[in-house]
Amino acid sequence: MASKDESPGCSSESEDSGMSSTPVTNEKIKTEKTKAKKTPLLVKFFQRKWTNVKRGVFEKAGLSTQSEEGPSSIPGANCAETQNQLKTELSMLEEHAPPSLMQLLDVLAECKLSWTPVTEVWLRVFIGNGETALDQATLEKMGITHVLNATPAEDAPGRNIPSREAYYQSLNISYYHVAAVDEAWFDISEFFHPAAGFIQTALQNPEHKVLINCAHGVSCSASLSLAYLMIHLDLLLENAIDRVTRVRRIEPNIGFLKQLALLNANLIEQRKLKLENLIKGH
């Protein structure tokens, strides 16, 4: 913003010295400002570069860019160009500095969107609250075919249905329950891969739509959604958070964020190992 471009420190230093700004000084200040402005642009550039590298590898192998296994599923990878692409991605992974928990919390706090009952956060993937998940009219209008319920119990207080499983069966909706508790001490990580697998299997059919719900649609369901994007769509945690918070306000508790950060680190190590093996021709 213009107000930040005007540097009080620079002007006061010039006044204290009793000297007017010289062309050299102005040029130096201008250069420093340009560097500061370009920093976020450079970050975006490398993120796009990384995506393009992976896309090129996928296309050469005749695979979808949303391949479950990512670049590691490519057999061979012998041509020089593909080798260079693999090496570029490996180098980026090795140089990647994961954000701290405080930085992740800051990113989440930057989202100024108002809370809504349900949001499509990825193509055919929705995050919603408990009421939405039990509203037959809404489910039918949205075309939901699969529900991933991340609430502690499967009962539906105040509703005349025997169980959620029976309820969704009557609606011809596939159902998966994760007995999650929205507390920092709760180990939600044990459900990351099973829940992500449920979502991925559902989306193999282009007609299917998945609703991931918890009580308020901001913590348990959001954490499982982020895990899916990381495990099956090869996104880094910070990129997954960025994608979701563009359209929905989410608030994973600090314990869940720590577990997602650990998942992120493990996935990076797995990708690095697979890339190293591909480069070596294993």
From TrEMBL:
Signal sequence residues: none
Region named Disordered: 1-35
Gene Ontology CC: cytoplasm
Residues annotated as catalytic: 214
GO molecular function: MAP kinase phosphatase activity; protein tyrosine/serine/threonine phosphatase activity
Domain of life: Eukaryota
BP GO annotations: negative regulation of MAPK cascade
Gene3D superfamilies associated with the record: Protein tyrosine phosphatase superfamily
Occurrences of domain Tyrosine-protein phosphatase (ranges): 116-269
InterPro entries from the UniProt entry: Atypical_DUSP_subfamA, Dual-sp_phosphatase_cat-dom, Prot-tyrosine_phosphatase-like, TYR_PHOSPHATASE_DUAL_dom
Name this polypeptide is given: Tyrosine-protein phosphatase domain-containing protein
Biological source species: Danionella cerebrum
